[in-house]
Amino acid sequence: MTRPRSSARYRVVVIALVTAPLLVLLLASVLLAQGQSASPEVQRIVPPEVLQWGFMAAALVTGLSAIGAAYAVAVVGGAAMGAVAEKPEMAGRALVFVGLAEGIAIYGLIIAIMILGYLS
After folding, report:
1. Res 11: pLDDT
2. What is the pTM of this model?
3. Domain 7-33+43-119 superfamily per CATH
4. 39: left (phi over 0), alpha (psi -120 to 50) or beta
5. What is the mean pLDDT of the chain?
6. Which residues contact 112 (CB under 8 A, 6 or more apart)?
7. Cα–Cα distance between 58 and 114 in angstroms, integer?
């Protein structure tokens, strides 16, 4: 017996919700362990409230962009495989569209790194 298609999407969303914020928090802890600022002559004091909301924003950006990318890849990947099944020469074009959908997660990760860079 096969599972409904929605359970696979649900599993992808749950995995994205769990792993993406954990990766951002791991990156934040590494940045904090290295020191407060990259250059010692520029010492910036960041209030704890700003740090708290900055880490929350970075985790949210990464998590939501991963969810968006997962949904986009699920939709585009299914349509791309249907097109490749009918016309095998369309595989290259289909792969480009799946790569564009994955770019959404990369953009979210870049924004999270920029936020964490501001906080350090």
Report:
1. 75
2. 0.61
3. F1F0 ATP synthase subunit C (1.20.20.10)
4. beta
5. 80
6. 24, 27, 58, 59, 61, 62
7. 9
